[in-house]
Design goal:
elongated, alpha/beta, 5-stranded antiparallel sheet, 5-stranded parallel sheet
Length: 254
């Protein structure tokens, strides 16, 4: 399971170093920072490969000078056991081929550098990449249907079917606002964040929609009231090119 799929977005770390004191130092720094879980520790490449295959961590902190294997060989062996894991080298040596390691790992940190730099790097490496899809749609009533279709296919791919009804309703309201009030073409963007599903509709029309109180005689603005009630948060961002109206749905059902 990725960091994005776990409660709180905790980053699971495997520490690989034959120096016990070095592992203890990193483990303490990670505990102090918070947001990490050290799921395993290894002092040899053989142990590291076995644990990496079993635990499938998000990040592996790897010393290149292990007793049974070293250099590029140890990196290749460990990476083969957990292909999805990011590897950050934490080494006491500065080899001639350091540039190669920097290009083929998530980072290279010398042991005499500030430990906070290592922790910052691990935090960045373990952070899930945002997934998103978007489509430009014309000023046409059929575009609302296409916006819903995008949401359906995307949530199916992301296995978020439990949010389908709410997400389709929200994107329909946002797209309808762009057509009826902005009177322009628009762009729909669906983004997957660690805790939320974000729906955005950007248009080039003037003005911003405002939620209106319930009324028996007025229809305008009631969609935004509905969006506010269904969403974890929502808002409007203006720019010189128009505006973006967005809403976020909590990924976990309370």
């Amino acid at each position: 399971m990725s960091a994005a799929g776990r409660p709180g977005g905790v980053v699971r770390v495997l520490l690989v170093d034959d120096a016990v004191d070095a592992r203890r130092l990193v483990r303490t720094a990670l505990r102090f920072r918070g947001g990490f879980e050290v799921t395993g520790e290894a002092g040899t490449c053989a142990q590291a490969a076995e644990l990496a295959a079993e635990l499938q961590p998000d990040v592996i902190v790897l010393d290149l000078g292990l007793p049974d294997l070293a250099g590029r060989d140890v990196l290749g062996r460990v990476r083969a056991s957990a292909p999805a894991a990011k590897v950050v080298v934490f080494s006491g040596a500065d080899p001639d081929d350091r540039l190669w390691f920097e290009e083929n790992t998530a980072g290279y940190v010398l042991k005499n550098e500030d430990l906070d730099y290592l922790v910052d790097l691990l935090e960045s490496a373990g952070r899930p990449e945002q997934q998103s899809v978007e489509v430009d749609l014309p000023q046409d009533l059929g575009s609302v249907r296409q916006a819903r279709s995008l949401v359906r296919s995307t949530l199916d791919d992301w296995e978020l079917g439990h949010l389908l009804d709410e997400a389709c309703l929200v994107v329909s309201e946002l797209a309808t606002n762009a057509l009826n009030h902005a009177e322009s073409s628009f762009r729909v963007r669906v983004s997957l964040n660690p805790g939320t599903l974000r729906l955005e509709v950007a248009d080039s029309g003037p003005g911003t929609p405002e939620p209106q109180p319930q009324s028996d005689t007025r229809e305008g603005g009631r969609g935004l009231v509905l969006i506010a009630a269904m969403s974890a948060s929502w808002g409007i961002e203006e720019s010189a090119r128009g505006k973006v109206v967005w809403a976020e749905l909590a990924r976990e059902v309370s």
